[in-house]
């Protein structure tokens, strides 16, 4: 585990030194790991300088007083774009028709005549959801969950110049604790390829229910955090300004979305942006579609921002190791494992 050096740039929120708070949190995690205590995901990730920041789950700032926590999350807040009222209308109209066993194709055809990209994506998603979601049951089988995730990702995260792969993409890296070369395989990754030689990974999905999962010692939350960090490190190495990655964690029908940045020295902030439940059936679940699309739109804006910065760095021919953020980078480590005595 890297020793925490004096940070070059500190995160201060209303006079509170959050950098010092996170350093102290990591030291507690190291102490817990050495005692072979069972660690929470947030503690394990902090060993790799990744700090989960969530207003809902136990995290690196949960010990702060409520008003300080509120100030922290106000500081971290990303603008949440809204979808148009027309999207709410078509979802409500479609759900009403399906509840009465009516044909929804006339609704789609009417809306399709004068629709923008946002409405087009919504119609495409609704069409796919109707095909595989059950009529009334709210429990989704694994295949339906995966199909639902794919429907949203493929349709609403259509980013110009980006490519995506499901369960085939490998992210090579060197494990600092063992010195061995290994790789991670996200359930889904979106990446940019501004040059023929190098991919830059921007968006990651981990689906807990996906069969044939890899590392049994790490939860999907830990895996997602490390994938997002690898993406950040590669962007920093290419002199990309203000690098950010985004991730989606799917646990059954429940979803959490995150962004990660490296604005401060040695602090990979993994910030929860949203959580929601995927549609469970096509009768009373379609009104979930607009808020999910808003969350997708939020991630898309971050991806597009990072891609713009990436292509600017490549076009400018900047040196591969910038003088600023390269000093903020830290190595990841493996997850502690319990040993039998």
Number of helices: 9
The parts where pLDDT drops under 50 for at least 5 residues are none
What is the mean pLDDT?
Answer: 86
**Helix-strand category:** alpha+beta
Radius of gyration: 21 Å
Order of strands in the sheet with most strands = 3-11-10-9-8-7-4
Q: What best-fitting shape do the alpha-carbon axes yield?
A: globular
Distance between the termini: 24 Å
Strand percent estimate? 15-25%
Strand and helix order: EEHHEHHHHHEEEEEHEEEH
> Largest beta sheet, briefly?
7 strands, mixed
Helix content: 25-40%
**Number of strand segments:** 11
**How many structurally independent domains?**
2
Strand and helix map with partners:
Elements: E1 12-13, E2 16-17, H1 18-34, H2 41-46, E3 50-53, H3 66-76, H4 85-99, H5 105-112, H6 117-132, H7 142-156, E4 162-166, E5 171-174, E6 181-184, E7 188-192, E8 200-207, H8 220-237, E9 244-251, E10 254-264, E11 267-277, H9 289-316
Parallel strand pairs: 3-11, 8-9
Antiparallel strand pairs: 1-2, 4-7, 5-6, 7-8, 9-10, 10-11
Helix pairs in contact: 4-6, 6-7
Please characterize this protein's 3D structure.
With 341 residues, the protein is α+β, with helices and mostly antiparallel strands. The protein folds into two domains: 12-76, no CATH class; 85-318, no CATH class. The protein is 39% helix and 19% strand. The strands form three sheets. A seven-stranded mixed β-sheet has the order 3-11-10-9-8-7-4, with helices on both faces. A hairpin with a 6-residue loop joins β5 (171-174) and β6 (181-184). α4 (85-99) packs parallel to α6 and α6 packs antiparallel against α7 (142-156).
């Amino acid at each position: 585990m890297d020793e925490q050096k004096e940070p070059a740039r500190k995160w201060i929120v209303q006079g509170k030194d959050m950098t010092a708070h996170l350093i102290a949190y990591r030291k507690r995690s190291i102490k817990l790991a050495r005692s072979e205590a069972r660690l929470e995901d947030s503690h394990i990730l902090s060993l790799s300088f990744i700090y989960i920041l969530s207003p809902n789950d136990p995290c690196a700032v949960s010990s702060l007083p409520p008003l300080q926590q509120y100030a922290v999350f106000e500081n971290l807040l990303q603008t949440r774009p809204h979808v148009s009222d027309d999207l709410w209308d078509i979802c409500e109209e479609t759900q009403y028709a399906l509840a009465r066993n009516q044909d929804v194709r006339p609704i789609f055809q009417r809306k399709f005549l004068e629709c923008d990209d946002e409405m087009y994506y919504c119609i495409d998603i609704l069409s796919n959801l109707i095909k595989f979601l059950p009529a009334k049951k709210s429990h989704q089988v694994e295949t339906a969950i995966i199909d639902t995730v794919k429907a949203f990702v493929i349709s609403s995260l259509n980013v110009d110049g980006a490519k995506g792969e499901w369960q085939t993409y490998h992210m090579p890296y060197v494990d600092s604790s063992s010195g061995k070369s290994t790789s991670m395989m996200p359930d889904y990754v979106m990446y940019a390829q501004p040059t023929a030689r190098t991919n830059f990974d921007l968006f990651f999905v981990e689906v807990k229910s996906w069969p044939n999962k890899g590392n049994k010692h790490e939860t999907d939350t830990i895996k997602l955090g490390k994938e997002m960090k690898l993406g950040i490190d590669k962007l920093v190495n290419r002199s990309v300004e203000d690098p950010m990655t985004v991730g989606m964690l799917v646990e059954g029908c429940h979803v959490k979305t995150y962004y990660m940045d490296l604005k401060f020295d040695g602090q990979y902030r993994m910030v929860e942006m949203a959580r929601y439940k995927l549609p469970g059936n096509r009768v009373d679940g379609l009104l979930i579609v607009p808020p999910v699309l808003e969350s997708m739109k939020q991630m898309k804006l971050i991806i597009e921002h990072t891609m713009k910065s990436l292509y600017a760095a490549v076009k400018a021919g900047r040196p591969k190791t910038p003088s600023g953020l390269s000093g903020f980078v830290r190595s990841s480590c493996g997850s502690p494992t319990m040993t039998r005595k």
